[in-house]
Amino acid sequence: KNSLILKKTVVLVGMMGAGKTAVGKALAAQLGVPFLDSDAEIERAANMTIAEIFERDGEPFFRQKESQVIGRLLDEERGILSTGGGAFMSAENREMISERGVSVWLNADLDLLWNRVKHKDTRPLLRGADPYGTLKRLYETRVPLYARADLNVRSDKTYSVDMMAKKVIEAL
Ligand code: S3P
Question: Where, by residue number, does substrate bind (predicted)?
Fold first, then answer.
């Protein structure tokens, strides 16, 4: 099942709402390689949603699981790996990803991210009183770290998911 065309797993990083899951699925389909998703894998293994894990066990526990799952997925097979928005913030995760994968930052601006996430309540980090302020603060602190990814693919509200997948392929 391992892909012959990928030398390394392609790891999509970036903020909530950047399209990591949607673009990852399209990319995997276009290339005919496996699609891997760290958040989905954490939820499957725990049989709980990310929000439930945050609520019951706290964010540090989630981050621990996230590192374990990313390490395991990078070992298991080559494919397209979508990560959660916070995954690339840990130095340990960045190191694992850069050794065993190619990181691609889906780089969307704050307005676009907000437009995509504001109607959903699936994201525990945005459940407080000022979700826009929280997203903005996360965006500002995270951008310098996303910028360390191997590749930077700009997103825009006019780009379709398939176009974004093509842009990633062109960048690889
Ligand atoms: C998080 C993003 C989420 C999920 C968790 C924490 C973050 O993934 O991992 O809620 O820290 O930005 P998405 O980026 O897929 O929303």
Answer: 39, 63, 85, 142
